[in-house]
Amino acid sequence: MGLLSNTDTLFSSLTEDEVKKIIREERFYKKGSVIIRAQEKNTSVMFVKSGLLKITRISADGNENTVSLAESGDVFAEAFSILERESPVEISAIQDSSVVFLDTAEIKKNIKAVNNLLKILAERNLYLTKRIEHLMEKSIKDKVLSLLKEESERKGCRTIRLSYNREEMARYLSTDRSALSAVLSRMKKEGMINYRKNEFTLLEI
Asked: N- to C-terminal Cα distance for the chain?
C-alpha cells in the first residue's frame, strides 16, 4: 500500500540547481535499523530512495502499532521537521533501505517546493482518513475488504500487490496475525478473494 509516491511531486517544476540545494545527503540503513526514534528531534524532510520503512507508535503498555509504511519514492518526517518538534513516532527499516535527507530550511525558501509539500500533506491527510475508514469496520473480514477495495480502486485493477508482509498487514489493521490469516483463508474458501503471499485478487465486489 504504499504511502503515496511523492518525490516527483516534491521536485515538480524545480530546476536541477534548486534540487541540488535541497538534497543534503543519502544514507543506507540495514533491515531493522532505526532511522528516527520517538521523542527524537529531527530537522530533515526525507524520502525513501529504495527499500521499505515502517512508521510506528508505541502505546503506554508497550505495544507497537504501525501507523503507516513508506516505500520507494515516499516522503516522510515532513510535518515534525518543519515544525521543529520531537518525533511522535519511531521510523525503522523493514528492508535494507536508502534514505535521502533534505534541507528543510532550503525547502522553506523555495515557494515551488513549499507548494509541492502542501500537496503531499493534503494527500497524506486523505491517506490517513482512508485508514481510519478501514479501522472503523467491525470485523476483520470487513477491514480486509475495505483495504483491498480501496487499493484496487486506487490502482485500477482487481489484482494488487501490497508492499508489506502478513505481520505488517495485521498491525496496519490493528488485529492479530493468526486471526487475520484465519480470516483470509476463510475468505479464499468462500471465493471472495484469491492470494499468494502479498498479492491479492478481489473475486467478489
From this structure: 19
